[in-house]
Design goal:
195 residues, alpha+beta, Aminopeptidase, 9 strands, globular
Length: 195
């Protein structure tokens, strides 16, 4: 798969690797309590966001040289980063991957998450060649669960009090999609991107 400076385009979005100029936009998302509510960390300081950016801008491919891809979501009519996507290999032996996503609350409910994640699944199945891709979320995070359902992912597990997040035992939902299911959904034709 392409590496480094590539850009992917969907109907309304550009998906590209993160760069140094994205610090303010990343901070605008990661410093919000409503964004980090269901994550393992709380709102980030500027220094924490800078450290995160230093790590994620290196994640530019899943191949012999890299195990992860982290992409900024940018609307075509803007230069601002409104979210970030991740896809990484979880097992070479079993040819499996995992997805993750964060979308700025000001841009939720417009179908951007569905549109971006559909492209990420396409990359995972059609370019990387994963057999299975999973997505996980805190069971209280209904928006993330609904997004994975819209993508055609099926709920495989509801793990009770599986994670300790910010001092509270929380349930975790695990969704998954197989390459054969992805291929069938593509053969049936695209589904509209619903918010």
């Amino acid at each position: 798969m392409p590496r480094s400076t590539f850009q992917l385009r969907t109907e309304r979005l550009i998906l590209r690797p993160f760069g140094d100029a994205d610090l303010d936009d990343l901070l605008a998302m990661q410093s919000r309590a409503d964004v980090t509510r269901y994550l393992n960390w709380g709102p980030m300081s500027r220094d924490q966001a800078r450290d995160l950016l230093a790590r994620i801008k290196k994640l530019t491919g899943i191949d012999d040289k890299g195990e992860g891809l982290r992409l900024a979501i940018v609307p075509k009519r803007s230069t601002a980063v409104i979210g970030d996507l991740s896809l990484w290999r979880t097992s070479r032996e079993h040819n499996q991957g995992e997805i993750g996503f964060v979308l700025h609350p000001d841009h939720q409910g417009q179908g951007f998450g569905t549109e971006a994640m559909r492209e990420l699944l396409r990359i995972g199945f059609e370019e990387v060649g994963f057999h299975r891709i999973v997505g996980r979320c805190d069971a209280r995070n209904g928006a993330s669960a609904r997004l994975m359902q819209r993508l055609g992912m099926r709920l495989e597990a509801h793990l009770r009090e599986n994670e300790l997040i910010k001092g509270e035992w929380c349930d975790e939902l695990i969704y998954a999609l197989l390459a054969t299911e992805w291929a069938s959904s593509q053969a049936a034709g695209p589904t509209p991107s619903a918010p």
